[in-house]
Amino acid sequence: MGTFFRKLAGFIFFFSKKIKHFLWKRIYDRLANTYEYFDWAFMNYGFDYDNKSNEPPLGDEDEEYRYCIQLYHHTVEKLAVQDKTVLEVGSGRGGGTSYIARYLNPKKITGIDYSKNAITLCNRIHNEHNLEFVEGDASDLPMEDDSQDIVVNVESSHCYPSIPQFLSEVKRVLKPGGLFAWTDVCPTEAVDDYEEAFNTCGMKTIDYYQITDNVLRALDADKINEVKNEIIHKSTPFYLKGIIKDFSGLKDTAIYNTLRNGRTQYSFRILQNG
What we know:
- The chain has helices at residues 2-14, 20-34, 66-76, 95-103, 116-125, 163-173, 191-199, 212-220, 222-235, 241-248, 254-260, and strands at residues 85-89, 108-113, 131-135, 148-154, 174-187, 203-210, 264-273.
- Strand 4 (148-154), helix 6 (163-173) and strand 5 form a beta-alpha-beta unit.
- The protein contains eleven helices and seven strands.
- The protein is of the alpha/beta class.
- The longest helix has 15 residues, at 20-34.
- The termini are far apart.
C-alpha cells in the first residue's frame, strides 16, 4: 500500500497536468484532517543560508522550524514588506504566513489555499491581528484587481494545473509596480515551460537564481529530519507514512533523491508588475 501511494505521488508530481489539481487538493485536505493541531506548521523543504550571519533571529517557540522559516525569510527578505498589503497563494498550514505577519509587520497579509480543511485549521490556530485565511484557487484568486502590494508563492505552484493562468491572476491582483516573490521545485524537463510562462506573463523578472544546494543542506540537517520523522511516526496512519515521507522531502525518499541527482531543481524568482 505504501509503495502504491509513493508511486502515485511521483505520477502527480512529474507527469499529470489535468488531474494534479484534483488529486493534490484531496491530499492536502487529508493532511489537514490528519494533523489537526499546531504540530506541523510548515510543509516546505527548508533553506540553509550560505552565510550564517544572514539567518533571521527567531523566538524560542519558532527555533525548531528554523529551516522552514528561513525559506520564507529568504523569499521575502528583499521586499519591503512592512506596512504593505501582502497575499500568499498556497498558504498550506499557515506557518509561513504567520511568520510574515508576526516578524515582518505587513499592514495585512492574506493566506489563500484551495483546501477548505486547511483554511479552517489556519483560522483556528493562527490569531495575528493582521492576518486572515481565505479559501480560493490559484487559477481564480478571490481578490480584487490591483489590490496587493506583494504576492508570495512558496513551494506550491508545482501543484497547479496551469502556471500561465496562475501568473495571469498574480498580475491581475498586483498593484502597478507590485512585486511577486516565487520559489519552488521544478522537474528539469519542465524548466523550459516555466521559463516561457514567466517570460510571457507581462511581469518583469528582476531577480532569479537556483537555490537547490541551500534546500538540500536544509533537508540534510538532523534537526529538520528529527522534527518531521517524529510528527510522521506519531500521527500518520501506516498506509500514508510512505507518501508523507516523500511529501516532506526526508533524506533518501524519492523526491529528495530527484533533487540530489538533478532530476529536479529548486529556483527563486522576483517579478515586478508593469
